[in-house]
Amino acid sequence: MKIYLKYILKELIQPFIFGIGAFTAIFVGTDILFRLADFYSNFDVSILTTVELFLLSLPQIIVYTFPMATLLATILAYSRLNGDSEITAFRAGGFSLRKLIIPALIVGLLASFGGIAINEFVVPEANYRYSQMVYEFQHGGEERPRTQYDLFLTPLDSATNRPEFILYTRRFSADDGEMEVVNLQEYEDGRPARLIEADRAVWREDGWQFYDGQIYQLRAGDRVARMDFSEYIVRAEIESPDRIAELDRDTDEMTLWELSEYIAVMRSQGRDVFEERVFWHQKISVPFASFIFALMAAPLGMKPKRQGGSATGMGLSVIIIFIYYGLMTLGDAMGSQGAISPWLGAWLQNIVFAGVGSVLLYKTGR
């Protein structure tokens, strides 16, 4: 690794770690502690459970603090280098300002990818376990029910992009592995082939078994043939009860893939799901703010000396973060209402800040 790169990276790491701790402490002190204190005093939650709830809250917070810490670290590091005339020394040695911001962009990219990974592989499960635990002690130890009403399943054939089947049930219980009042329309080559109606369906080791119903064979130009049955194992590969129950998770308990599947199912039912589509994009755009902040903060840190040192850097970071999350809230609201495209609603703040950062970088480098 080149010496200048290693030197500036060292300048960035310490304030980055400090920023994670400082901003995490702010989130904990202004939100999490109040909730945990409420659980402890009103539901007689044990200390061990309280600690576990606290730990399960941290992954979501860290996803938000990574961009903030990157912003603070970049401003402080480059302000220090500029204040001690080391930027001037670098330039005298032939380094361009654009080359000097490369370490900040590396930290921003690593923080972005780290945030995306945590958001995808840790946050959904942590949020799910948190919700389960809260439900259990709020309802006397009962597990969160996994029952859904008026459930639709419409998986698509990946080869033809057409429905494999459409299933409707009036009541689905993942705990019992049963469905009540079931309608299943099976497709072949993208066309409806069979309609199966049953009073109930039960999950067995070899799949779903339907009881007390009728099968209608659907062929264009032919009479609809009907066959009554008391027991029938369907050909359609309907998911297991546990897998279906996962579709009932809150969106912040889903991975990107699960959320994509959930959105596809909801859209197939004619729902707009603008809010869920915005949230899907935010699972990437929010962590990616680390890179955007690094791009914008490095030129800001190279500005002429300001009075106040670290305090000024902290204050400037808070102002930028406030504006960023203000824009994010605006984009979220507009995207969720369908006023703008969901992806634009999720990425609006990043686009604006990337534009500002590019202009600052251009002016600084002239």
From TrEMBL:
Instruction: From the record, give the transmembrane residue ranges.
Output: 12-34, 54-79, 100-118, 284-302, 309-328, 340-362
GO terms for biological process?
Answer: lipopolysaccharide transport
Give me the Gene Ontology terms describing cellular component: ATP-binding cassette (ABC) transporter complex
Tell me the keywords, alphabetical order.
Cell membrane, Membrane, Transmembrane, Transmembrane helix
Which membrane topology term applies here? Multi-pass membrane protein
InterPro entries per UniProt:
LptG/LptF_permease
Q: Where in the cell is it found?
A: Cell membrane
Any Pfam family matching the protein? LptF_LptG
Q: Which PANTHER family match?
A: SLR0882 PROTEIN-RELATED, YJGP_YJGQ FAMILY PERMEASE
Protein's recorded name: LptF/LptG family permease
List the source organism.
Halonatronomonas betaini
